[in-house]
Amino acid sequence: MKEITDYREKQVLVLGLAKSGFEVAKLLLTLGAKVIVNDGSPLEGNPDAEALAAQGVQVVSGSHPPELLDGTDLIVKNPGIPYRIDILQAAQKRAIPIITEVELAYQINEGRTIAITGTNGKTTVTSLIGDMFKHSAKKGYMSGNIGYVASKVAQTVDAADYMITELSSFQLMGIQEYHPHIAVITNIYSAHLDYHGTQDEYVKAKMNIFSNQTAEDYLVYNLDQRSLLADYEVSSRLIFFSTTDKTDGSYILDDKVFFRDEFIIDTADIVLPGKHNMENVLASVAVGKLAGLDNDAIRKTLTTFSGISHRLEFVTEDRGIKYYNDSKATNTLAASFALDAFQQPTHWICGGLDRGNGFEDLDAHISAVTRMYVVGETAEKLTAFAAEHGIPCTLCLDVKDAVNQTAAYTKSGDVVLLSPACASWDQYQTFEVRGDAFIQQVGVLCRQNV
Prior knowledge:
One of its GO terms (biological process) is cell wall organization. Keywords: ATP-binding, Cell cycle, Cell division, Cell shape, Cell wall biogenesis/degradation, Cytoplasm, Ligase, Nucleotide-binding, Peptidoglycan synthesis. It comes from Macrococcus carouselicus. Belongs to the MurCDEF family. ATP binds at residues 118-124. By secondary structure, this protein is of the alpha/beta class. The chain folds into three domains: 11-99, 3-Layer(aba) Sandwich (Rossmann fold); 108-302, 3-Layer(aba) Sandwich (UDP-N-acetylmuramoyl-L-alanine:D-glutamate ligase); 313-448, Protein-Tyrosine Phosphatase, Chain A. It contains 15 helices and 20 strands. It has helices at 18-30, 47-54, 86-93, 101-108, 122-134, 150-153, 169-172, 193-196, 199-207, 277-290, 295-302, 332-340, 379-388, 399-406, 431-448, and strands at 11-15, 34-39, 58-61, 74-77, 98-99, 112-117, 140-144, 162-166, 182-185, 218-222, 237-242, 249-253, 256-259, 262-266, 313-318, 321-325, 346-350, 369-374, 393-395, 415-418. The protein has a nine-stranded mixed β-sheet with strand order 7-8-6-9-10-11-12-13-14. Strands 15-16-20-17-18-19 form a six-stranded mixed β-sheet, sandwiched between helices. A five-stranded parallel β-sheet has the order 3-2-1-4-5. A hairpin with a 2-residue loop joins strand 13 (256-259) and strand 14. The termini are far apart.
């Protein structure tokens, strides 16, 4: 960990406890800061809050008192907290800097940074790259939005190592000096408009990933979306990936994967399922080669890595019915990939947080859907969508209820697919919690059938 003195005797407000707030508060104490933690929810009895208080951290919960800004030199905010809340609006008027914890992680990281963002595929790409490092002689540490707090991971990274960080648009809005040696943008589609307000603001947040790069760095980018770069200055070296065109990067030709004309692997040997995953593979191959990983390490991953939890995850087969958990499909594009993966009669469990969007993007992807089971805030919209397409629809209380309802309609050869096309936060704390609820109830249902 780099020895930095920037935070000594500085008053830092950590806004939002959660996992990242807890770790960043501890790190700031180590760096000599005076730390205040503020969370809008009550924290009585919270073990993390109690642990911080025992170390001298002032913990304020239940509201965001404006007087917390008095004497504050910096705010480190939880990425999910929108800038429109009163305390952040007031901080901006006072010109108090606001960052997210990945900025702090970058400042203490001794190694090189690989950063991955995008609307879809970023978790898969991060996992693929992390797995490639595991099979190589080099060390790479996964962090960020994938579930490992970046400011904690950064403390263990040495100068010869790589820190591999998945970044959301929320995190990228809170960077200042953040400077990845290799940046990846998998794709950009419409998402998170409830947070960003407009698509332009969402795109701008994503493009922050390369804002501090220089000619010594790399930007790995989807060739199909090259036009989105027209409004941005790219100082780094552009490395494209494409499933359809030969390019100066990674591409497919005659069912083989190449990087800059170097053969890497036959596509038939790649075990990760789904056509959409081929772009993720190509992005990961490009990063692996740029980071100096040998082809054996890259091939080992591509011939063994079969996917990640909650992303088109096969759960079980019971009485000839197959169950798939795709809870990470929090938007229509991700759901379209899952729906396209099946030709069998599909029982589609969907719905969740209403972000104001419609579902017409899925019109061309529902040919195999024989019944919909809708949940959450978007249930009414999805019921209307089902009626428009003549698909029988069942209104359900939650994912558990939806699993139970499928028992009345499924038969051998069918697929039950949880692919919500919506975020989880109306009923579940995270998409992982939602997916786990699905898996657990599938297990209950199958045991009842014994």
